[in-house]
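Researcher: Let's do a round of design. I'm pasting the structure tokens now; please hold your answer until I've finished.
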């Protein structure tokens, strides 16, 4: 029988995982086998720059936490898994996808975005979405175009009135 102290430590870790799932907008499980220490440091730096992070937990503890939350990701918990998380829905997905292009050892397994499970194809789809700043820039550009067109129309209308 396991020591009570060990069980309490494991429960704290399970609670930590559940807290990270509940408080972050996106979670990505990925396989990091074959990556060097330098590559892992580079990945961690890239994630931190995007206000994201990752942590490695035992699969049994992650499975227990996800089962407690009624999220079925057990198929993705084979082999070593790292757990990337962020309050931004897209940032960790994009960073991990871009990083995987240059580092084939990194393999995305499954994600949870706003409470919905996303498989590898859905994660690849999410990775193509521009960042929040990029989307806001696109929106502003579209709005500036409308204002420009309106000002041109008003100017032409005023010129037409002056001629009459």
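Researcher: That's everything. Go ahead.
Model: Designed sequence:
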């Amino acid at each position: 029988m396991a020591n009570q102290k060990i069980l309490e430590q494991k429960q704290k870790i399970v609670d930590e995982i559940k807290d990270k799932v509940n408080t972050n907008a996106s979670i990505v499980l990925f396989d990091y086998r074959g990556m060097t220490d330098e590559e892992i440091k580079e990945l961690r730096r890239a994630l931190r720059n995007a206000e994201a992070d990752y942590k490695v937990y035992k699969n049994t503890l992650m499975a227990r936490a996800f089962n407690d939350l009624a999220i079925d990701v057990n198929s993705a918990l084979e082999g070593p898994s790292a757990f990337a998380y962020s309050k931004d829905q897209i940032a960790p997905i994009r960073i991990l996808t871009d990083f995987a292009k240059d580092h084939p050892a990194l393999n995305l397994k499954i994600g949870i975005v706003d409470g919905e499970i996303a498989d590898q194809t859905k994660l690849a789809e999410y990775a193509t979405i521009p960042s929040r700043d990029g989307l806001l820039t696109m929106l502003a550009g579209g709005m500036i175009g409308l204002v420009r067109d309106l000002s041109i129309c008003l100017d032409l209308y005023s010129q037409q009135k002056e001629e009459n």
